[in-house]
Design brief:
alpha/beta; TIM Barrel; 8-stranded parallel β-sheet; 277 residues; binds zinc ion
Length: 277
């Protein structure tokens, strides 16, 4: 279903969840997210697509009931760029498995890390991987390649846009990762020129609903070093710089907070600033 509403959510379950009454069972995460005033949740399968189908169904039911938009982060071991025997085929299988679980949950999209610059033509391999997955999975869940923060990783904005162009995918814009590659998001102007570039590739309609990861970040000459918390004022990028562009372009994005140990606080902070108009 197409929604014209901005979504705010956490990536996984932050410490405050475990401190809450609902925190005894991870399956309660959706209920907790809703109880604190958020309407999105990124379910992490980063360490494996191992969720039991019954649990996926249970989470999906709750999410539907409470109006929480779900996305799923795929396992880190999906690496289409690997030249190791069997890894490509296994990555295809695991991504299909993730998509099927996401579909049971009623999640609209899965987010994945494209891979590394450790082989010749990594982008060709990633495109081949996505195409192979799409041959085997014909359901409604979308595959979103994510911008990545380390220079050793495939995932500069240009690389992600190329993958999107060649596969018909939409991007996941991880602004912390984008900033980690040389510190390029220092002002509203920087956000605007970046988003105009994305718009040129995917069009305004898709840009308006783009899936984002947001948090301040620490980086060095290799790129991303560490996620930081939304209240650590010395770190960029800042939501205050993204906000005017969201308003100008009339965007209704999904804003997933990966603020260090404070994903909930980061998401609520974005919601608060957006509400101020
Ligand atoms: Zn990620």
């Amino acid at each position: 279903m197409e929604t014209l509403e901005t979504h705010y959510g956490t990536s996984g379950t932050p410490p405050n969840f475990f401190k809450s009454k609902l925190g005894k069972k991870r399956v309660n995460a959706v209920e907790w997210v809703s109880s604190i005033g958020l309407n999105a949740y990124e379910y992490l399968m980063t360490y494996g697509a191992k969720t039991a189908p019954e649990v996926a169904e249970q989470i999906g039911k709750k999410a539907k009931e409470l109006g929480i938009a779900l996305s799923v982060h795929t396992p880190y071991y999906i690496v289409f760029t690997s030249e190791k025997e069997g890894v490509f085929e296994n990555s295809v299988k695991e991504m299909v498995k993730t998509l099927n679980l996401a579909e049971i949950m009623g999640a609209e999209k899965i987010i994945f890390h494209p891979g590394f610059h450790n082989s010749g033509n990594p982008i060709d391999r990633i495109v081949k991987g996505i195409k192979e997955v799409k041959k085997r999975y014909k359901g409604p869940v979308k595959i979103l390649p994510e911008t990545m923060g380390k220079f050793s990783q495939v995932g500069s904005l240009d690389e992600i846009l190329e993958i999107c162009r060649r596969t018909g995918c939409e991007p996941c814009l991880d602004f912390g990762h984008i900033h980690s590659r040389g510190g390029i998001l220092n002002s509203a102007k920087d956000f605007k020129s970046l988003l105009l570039k994305v718009k040129k590739q995917i069009g305004m309609k898709k840009l308006k609903k783009v899936h984002c990861h947001f948090y301040p970040v620490e980086f060095n000459s290799k790129g991303e070093k560490k996620h930081r918390a939304y209240f650590e004022e010395e770190y960029l990028p800042k939501f205050e710089h993204f906000l005017p562009v969201i308003k100008e372009f009339k965007m209704t994005p999904t804003l997933i907070s990966e603020s260090r140990d404070s994903q909930d606080g980061g998401a609520l902070y974005m919601k608060k600033l957006m509400g101020r108009g």
